[in-house]
């Protein structure tokens, strides 16, 4: 009797856990594809509690929110023949979970199937766009065209591509190296020109300063000579005015001045006649 009760409890527990395995909950942000032995049999989009046959059926959940996909870097030749590296990304939403399950199965499958489509569209559309247009607001029209082309191809995967954007653009490595070398040589050339202009300006400033200095010195010397000449002229005028009042005194003063100049040295010797005009002041004449 106890053995039968234990068996019944075990069977009831087993049935209960099997029943629980058949229950699953669908959230508002999910879609569910129910498969039976690997084959999809129905799609559940309504949120709530749902049931599947335990052991035979499986519920596969897909997020119905907006999701992003990072794309591989692509080297593109633009319409003006310039080559750039483009890093892009896309945003999509699963609209048909059954088709999504049958074609790409999961997010990794999206990358595998969608990546070449986006890169091909990028290459074709950007091939007709110049670099100046790509860096301006007109790039929005090009990106919208890429989005429309990719979305048209993505309908077969059960997804809706809502946006494709360029995350980063860069020059290819060989171009970057060449541009860096050209920039370095350009900066060196500008430095040489600046140094040459500096040397030239230094010479001009120095020569101008030397010229102004020479002119200033010359003008100063001229002024000094003029002042000396004017002073001597004024002194002579004063002498003439003073001595013209007494000619004998003037003659006497000139003789004394001549004596002072002649006898300045102690060992000066003169051999002159006593009747010489030079000694007339000493002779009392």
Explained architecture:
The protein has 285 residues and is an alpha+beta fold. Among the domains are: 2-63, no CATH class; 67-170, Tetrahydropterin Synthase, Chain A (2-Layer Sandwich); 247-279, no CATH class. Helix content is 54%, strand content 21%. The protein has helices at 2-22, 97-103, 107-126, 131-134, 139-154, 173-243, 247-262; strands at residues 23-26, 30-36, 39-44, 48-51, 57-63, 67-70, 74-77, 83-94, 159-170. Strands 6, 7, 8 and 9 form a four-stranded antiparallel sheet that branches. It has a three-stranded antiparallel sheet with strand order 3-2-5, with helices on one face. Strand 7 (74-77) and strand 8 form a beta hairpin. Helix 3 packs across helix 5. 12% of the residues are buried.
Short descriptors:
single chain; about 280 residues; alpha+beta; Tetrahydropterin Synthase, Chain A; four-stranded antiparallel sheet; 7 helices; 9 strands
What proportion of the residues is helical, as a percent range? 40-55%
Average pLDDT number: 82
Please work out how many helical segments DSSP would assign.
Answer: 7
- What is the chains' assembly state? single chain
Class per helix and strand makeup: alpha+beta
- Kindly state the number of beta strands: 9
> Which CATH class of the domain at 67-170?
Alpha Beta
The fold-level CATH name of the domain at 67-170 is: Tetrahydropterin Synthase, Chain A
CATH architecture title of the domain at 67-170: 2-Layer Sandwich
